């Protein structure tokens, strides 16, 4: 029987959690509102909670500039191509390490474990990328972070939970290792692939530090670098505009619209992967 104290405690907790949620959501709401507010309301200053006039001028401005469209395309390329490449490499490596018949398996696992404990540092990484001729190349933002030792170990734990009898049956039927990986393992690993795919996609979309190190040409900046320059210096040029009337938009409105555009794509992807997220992240991480 629930006591009066338990009911009171639950209500207080609910009120506190709602208050904390509103505090956390308010910055996102404010950025959203300002990005759609009319220029004259933004210029008035003060706290803008609900604009009297909604407009898409800031978004029209962003998508009419060469630099923003190009940066958004580069970030989209990183998120899509980088995620696919990372999932392929991580799943293939994890599957191979999960098979006990692999020669040198313990040595490889030890080497991968070392990479999770020790980081070579910025300078060795830059020298490797430079010697590979990838400076100012979009591939310099993908190849050095193609996989993670921690993700490999987690996905290996997921593959360890798949019964070995399925693989043995496929081998008896004439499949080779690649066929087993493609036809048997991957279809059974969709929850894990969805979870790790989201991790990779968010990391590639938010690429910032590696772009600062390896990309020196403004025309090859991803979206996060362009956004950072736009937030620091409102005079940052975004290139030619198709509508000269949009030049009078306040810089604050442009910044807020750029933040929304750089945030929304990941927010839209997450709901489609949510049902696989918890299962994919936890399966294989705990042994029964």
From TrEMBL:
The keyword Transmembrane helix applies. One of its GO terms (cellular component) is plasma membrane. Keywords: Cell membrane, Membrane, Transmembrane, Transmembrane helix, Transport. Its main location: membrane. Residues 72-273 form the ABC transmembrane type-1 domain. It is a multi-pass membrane protein. The chain crosses the membrane at residues 12-32, 71-95, 107-128, 134-154, 193-215, 256-273. One of its GO terms (biological process) is transmembrane transport. It is found in: Cell membrane. Belongs to the binding-protein-dependent transport system permease family. This is Carbohydrate ABC transporter permease. It comes from Cohnella xylanilytica.
